[in-house]
Every structure is written in C-alpha cells, then in structure tokens.
Write a structure and sequence with these properties.
The structure is a single chain. The longest helix is centred in the first third of the chain and has 21 residues. Strands 1, 2, 3, 4, 5, 8, 9 and 10 form an 8-stranded mixed sheet that branches. A two-stranded antiparallel ribbon has the order 6-7. It has 8 helices and 10 strands. The radius of gyration is 18 Å and the shape is globular.
Length: 257
C-alpha cells in the first residue's frame, strides 16, 4: 500500500514539476512539499538539528546511505541533487530525477572537468545543490572518505539576490538512521534501510516499505567557504571530519550538535 501510494504521488509530482520547469517557474518549493508528503506516506520521521544556511545559492554536502536520504533532505532543503549519470537511464526513477532538475554527472576522473562545469552553471543560475561526495552509498554504520575533486566548485564566486558577489557557502550535513518503530536501529537492521553495493533496488524497496516508522536524524553543521581553508582538499577533509564525527555520535545517541 505504501509503495503504491508513493508511486502514484510521485508520478503526479513528476508531471507537475516537469510542467513548472517547462514554463521556467522555480519548482524547488513544490518539490520540497512533495518530499514532505512522501515522508508521511513512507513513514519517515525526520529529526533536525542545527540551522540551515539561508543563502542562495549554496552547496549542501552530505553522507549517503539510502534512497531515503533523498526524501529526508528533499523535505528540508529547497535544492537540486547531484546524481550519478546512470540514474538518468533508470526506468521511472530516471524520469523523476530529470523532472526534479537533478544534475547528472559522470564519476570517472576523466569526466571531472565536465561535471564541475555542470555544477558551476547551476550555481551561477542561483540553484542550491545537494552533493554526496562519497560518490556512492554506505551501509549506514560509517562514512566513506569524501572525494575532493568536485570541491573545486567552491572556488566559484556567485551573485546573491542583492547583486553582491560572494564565495559559495558549503554546508556539511550528517545523516543517520537511528530508530525503527521507536526502538533503536541496531547494526543488524541497518542494511534493511541502507541501499549499497550490488543490492537490487526493487526487492529492497519492497521490503523497506514494510518496515514501519523509520527515524532519520539530520544535523546541519555551520557553513564554511574555501577561504576558510588552504585549499579544496582541506575543505573536503573538514567536511568529511564533521560529518563522520556527528554520524558516529548520532548512532550512539550522543549528538555533539
């Protein structure tokens, strides 16, 4: 029932979002409302810590665990996701991602320049973007090392709504799935939520839809800019550290935020 309701609502939202995009109307607020509705349909309880950066545009940098991340972050941030190019070819979900104005990039090192240019073009257009710099999803127990290549976009100067030039703000965000039906989500249960490795999407979705109420805790860390660090690798290392540290604390029930 949950899965059916999700698919029906998602297809309707895809059509509406596509129409808004076609007439050059900002669809980000509509999509945030859609994701908020989806949290109720799929039983995702979102607990928020910290403050979102109010500047537009900016970059949101998060660890990646599951497709539930998209719903949780999408319900909070009026922004567009940076996704791997393969997703654009997926049945149903590829169409949804395109209507959601996702930025599709190749993860190959040789394609870094093209990916960076795509992201910079969207930032120049005033879009807030959400990136997963692990470049893949993890099992929900730890954060994989952040790749620094795409952090070069933080060198970009953007123009705010008042016409002022400023450095692009980067806001690290930590995600952790901590409870299932109100009870602590132990190590053994996290693979039922996390979608990673060679797991097939269909069966995983089917089983996840039957889990019950899932709690995801989202911590927004203070935004930073490249000017705060010697180089992009130091910026990436900072984001990696704060996201990794907070995720471990969330899983242990002792958030430092």
């Amino acid at each position: 029932m949950r899965l059916t309701a999700f698919l029906v609502i998602s297809l309707l939202a895809t059509v509406i979002s596509g129409c808004l995009n076609a007439i050059s109307v900002n669809s980000a607020p509509f999509r945030r409302g859609y994701y908020r509705l989806v949290t109720k349909i799929v039983g995702l309880r979102v607990v928020v810590r910290g403050l979102q950066n109010a500047e537009r545009p900016h970059l949101v940098i998060s660890n990646h665990i599951s497709y539930f991340d998209i719903v949780g972050l999408g319900s909070l941030v009026a922004g567009d996701f940076v996704a791997k190019a393969d997703i654009a070819k997926w049945p149903i979900f590829g169409v949804m991602a395109k209507a959601g104005r996702s930025v599709f990039i190749e993860r190959r090192p040789s394609a870094t320049t093209g990916a960076r240019d795509q992201i910079q073009d969207r930032l120049d257009a005033g879009d807030t973007l959400i990136m997963f710099p692990e470049s893949t999803s993890g099992d929900g127990n730890y954060v994989k090392p952040f790749k620094s290549a795409l952090f070069t976009v933080a060198t970009r100067q953007v123009t705010d709504s008042l016409g002022r030039s400023r450095s692009i703000a980067v806001q690290p965000v930590s995600l952790a799935y901590t409870r299932l039906n109100g009870l602590p989500l132990g190590v053994g249960w996290r693979p039922y939520v996390a979608w990673y490795g060679d797991m097939e999407l269909g069966p995983h979705l089917w089983h996840a839809a039957k889990l019950g109420t899932l709690t995801v805790e989202v911590t927004f860390h203070p935004p930073v800019t490249l000017a705060d660090f010697p180089n992009r690798k130091a910026l990436a290392a900072h984001c990696d550290h704060v996201v990794r540290t907070e995720m471990a604390c969330l899983l242990s029930g002792r958030s430092v935020a």
